[in-house]
Amino acid sequence: MFDITIIGAGVTGCAIARELSKYNLKTCVIEKEIDVASGTSKANSGIVHAGEDPMPGTLKAKLNVRGNQMFDKLQEELEFPFKRNGSLVLCFDKDKMGELEELRERGINNGVPDTMRVINREEVLKIEPNISEHVVGALTLPTGGIVCPYELTIALAENASTNGVEFKLETQVNGIEKREDRYVLQTSKGDIETKIVINAAGVFGDDLNNMVSEKKYHIIPRRGEYCLFDKSVGNTVSRTLFQLPTKMGKGVLVTPTVDGNLIIGPSANNMENKEDVSTTREIMESILEKSKMSIKEVPMRQIITSFAGLRAHEVDGDFIIGEAEDAKNFINVIGIESPGLTSAPAIGEMVRDIIVEKLSPEKNENFNPIRKSIPKFREMNNDERREIIKKDKGYGKIVCRCETVTEGEIREAIRRPIGAKTLDGVKRRTRAGMGRCQSGFCSNRIVDILAEELNISREEVTKFGRKSNLLVENIKDSIQ
Q1: 218 tagged catalytic
Q2: β-pair partners for 192
Q3: Marked catalytic residue, from 49, 134, 218, 313
Q4: Which of these, 67, 72, 81, lies nearest to 152 by C-alpha position?
Q5: Taken in order 133, 95, 265, 66, is the CA torsion positive or negative?
Q6: pLDDT tens digits, residue range 257-301?
Q7: Where are the alpha helices (DSSP H) in 360-406?
């Protein structure tokens, strides 16, 4: 029996897992997909918000600011891509410049450092020359940042795993039963007994809560669609550009990614299907049109892909974190939408404190906060490259030309704790396949490496698990 079972291996669940690994607790993370970061955590803006937007007094406000403050130390310990590039909230109407000052005051009330300034168009142009003619002023947010959301999640998960947390992937929770001093989770791979359940199941969080509590929640999956641009236009802007809401809506953001691309989005459409991450031409055109309010020219010819993610919007609006009133030891962590990514480290602390108060566990004296990332060949100088090739000849073989990813990196991604088992798993850990050709060149070789490392046939290799097999059969074998 486990002391703690966390349902959901997104950034929130993995942040909680890492915090709990600091204590002598038998902790387990259950995830229905084949990999961590397979839901909302793989498809969002990758923004570390400053904290000026949430209403003061809400959990969103408190945890946003605290989470933001934690990223520098986390990056130092876990080696994931993160940069404090700063943000701007753009205003397009001189009569609304006062709203920027109101946002600044709200940020101060939330605990954002008092480094924010309201600046005019001329000052904006000095720091962002490519803003559009519509911009009349902006609010500067120096503590804003950008992060790779799935690499953050993977880093948290790997560190939790090496510190003793057990991960059960491809394990679907089908039912929850309360028995005296424990819960029994009925899963696709058998029953799991646990003293405490932490419900961090994203858009499915309401379903799990509603299995055990009379207090019913309703999570609306809110789809956000994005356009991703080639690195050749990644320097269109240096900061994240938000739009001050107008009568036409909240607008879209324009931002560089931490890996050097440009991203525009998202949309916000309520859905019924909790797994519908399709993209539409109509929404893409709308996003691109709205972005013209922020920048002079949208580099349409440099779009390399589009994608969508689902946000877990709870109808009451704020994060829901705490023990269900009528289900002792069932801890909800649901409705974690924006600024959920920024807040995740602080949510981990908050839930840790709840568990420590309940169980009074001893600290794990062997806890190691350090996790080393996979060496990135593209970031090395020639001396470093020669040295690593001496140790591993696989680093001398380029597999992904667009992103300069080597065979050595791919094999390490598969062999690591909670290693990659799919094409997408390799992609998120190494960026192989994320370049301009979108894996048109490298996918065949990655399939071969996955088959070799996992000791399976090429036909068994999938893109993201389930039935996403890439190959059907060997043509030579099928011809009689």
Answers
A1: no
A2: 185
A3: 49
A4: 81
A5: positive
A6: 999 999 999 999 999 999 999 999 999 999 999 999 999 999 999
A7: 382-391
